[in-house]
Amino acid sequence: MDAVGFYLYLISMASYFLHFTERVPFFGTIRLDLLLILAIIIIKIINSRDIYTLGINRCHKMLNVFIATVLIITPFVEYPGSVIYQGLPNFLKVVVFFYFTVWFITSKKRIIVFITVFVLCQTFRFLEPTYLHLTQGYWGDKAFIQTSVGPEFMNRLSGAPLDYLNPNGLAFVIISTMPFIPFLARLSKYWKLYFLIVTPISLYSLMLTGSRSGIIVFVIVAIYIVAKEKHKIILSTVSLGVFALIASQLSNVLMDRYRSVFDSNTMNHATASGRIFGLIQDYKLGLIRPIFGFGLGTSLEANYNYANIYLRSHNLYLEVFIELGIVGFIVYLLYLREIYRNIFYKRKAISVDFDNHMEQFQMSLASFFILTVLFCFASYNLSLYPFYMIGGLSISSLIANKNLPVIQ
After folding, report:
1. pLDDT in tens, 171-223
2. Which residue ranges make up each domain of the chain?
3. Which of 6, 120, 276, 358 is 20 to 30 A from 82 via CA?
């Protein structure tokens, strides 16, 4: 039954990322995603044995406390109806990533299979819109710019029509595969070939998104990954060469957008400075209800009603403050601290050494955690999967290396 649960989880993850229910109407009719989640939970209940350890309980405990906090404060928020109708359902769809990962990703082999499915799904998600762009001129989104002749709009690549990703979301999908390149490339020559082919395409797709935060995080994480590798000079030279070649193929408008990060004399500088203004507005909005917030998943509604802006908060940490107040914000940060401890501290504190592959996986997971923490300064993420999947994997890596017992 445990193996069945594992494979159902892989199918559920693939359905979540690739939107099976949108692509195949029959799957939507039978509510495939919900059926998969219920089936996995039933399998866990049937095959359940209670095993608790300090290493597992700390991360488990803080996520459980966070979920309890969300539920307890809901009657006291500004929009409890919106929380019940939309906020909680969206949240529950992603928080299961933590529990399913801890329940079923319990060995090195399963970690490899899980990461393989994850990377392939994410790769498809950015290859699809890139293919549509090259063959049909698809972009998917636009951005406002101020030119010398007045306001105009520039094209930005977003997710495919059936994948509801804005340009920043697509940028995160692209860079989320980066940390696992060294891990998978060590497993097979086919993975090396795969990444030699796909990486230049992913960089091209990333540049087309026009995501300045995506490029900044990409550079930081690339430096971190290269610093951990043996052939630093070769990797750095090749990476810079590929990056420069791709940049030379971009339009002047897109290059202007990236220059606006550090150059105030650009057409896109207004949108760059607008991000700073947005952060200030988000902070002021949070101060309106500083204790319990407006409610889970309501930053868009709160911005519209109080700031007359139809936008969600574009900073995860301010989003948590707006929606859950200082109470939820503190508990959420404590949960992130436990993930950090599992990835960066607990492994070093345990005397049993990781094998080479698991050591590399731990480094990849650390890169993914850093990437997500940084990217969330310019993206909303509370009801998206990353931190819940990372939290689960931070425990799975310890379980797989026999530093913690398997949970069944």
Report:
1. 999 999 989 988 888 888 899 899 889 988 998 899 899 888 888 888 888 88
2. 1-48, 54-400
3. 276
Query: Looking up tokens 């406390």, which residue turns up?
Result: 65
DSSP track, 92-161: HHHHHHHHHHHHH--SHHHHHHHHHHHHHHHHHHHHHHHHHHHHH---EEEEEEEETTEEEEEEEE---T
Q: How far apart are CA 298 and CA 279, in angstroms?
A: 16
Q: How far apart are CA 16 and CA 117, in angstroms?
A: 12
**In this predicted model, what pLDDT tens digit does every residue of 132-171 receive, in sequence order?**
999 999 999 887 666 555 567 788 899 999 998 999 999 9
Please state, in angstroms and rounded to a whole number, the distance separating the CA atoms of residues 346 and 49: 24
**How does 271-306 read in b/e, with b if 16+ C-beta sit within 10 Å?**
bbeeeeebbebbeebbeebeebbbbbbbbbbbbeeb
Contact 70, 325 (CB under 8 A): no
> How many degrees, rounded to 5, is the angle at CA 163 between CA 161 and CA 168?
105
**How many whole angstroms separate alpha carbon 306 and alpha carbon 221?**
37
Residues in the chain: 408
DSSP 61: H
Name the β-bridge partners of 151.
Answer: 146
Angle at 268 between CA 266 and CA 274, to 5 degrees: 120
Q: What letter represents residue 244's amino acid? A: A
**pLDDT tens digits along 17-52:** 999 999 999 999 999 999 999 999 999 988 765 444
Instruction: State residue 105's pLDDT score.
Output: 93
What single letter denotes the amino acid at residue 275?
R
Mean pLDDT for 285-289 is: 91
Paired tokens of 161: 């029509």
Q: Output the CA–CA distances (angstroms, integers) from residue 11 to 14, 19, 47, 116, 331, in the order listed.
A: 5, 11, 19, 13, 31
Contact 342, 398 (CB under 8 A): yes
User: What percent of the chain shows pLDDT beyond 90?
Assistant: 47
Name the percent of the chain in helix, strand, coil, to the closest 5: 75, 5, 25
Query: Per-residue confidence at 118, pLDDT binned at 50, 70, 90?
Result: very high
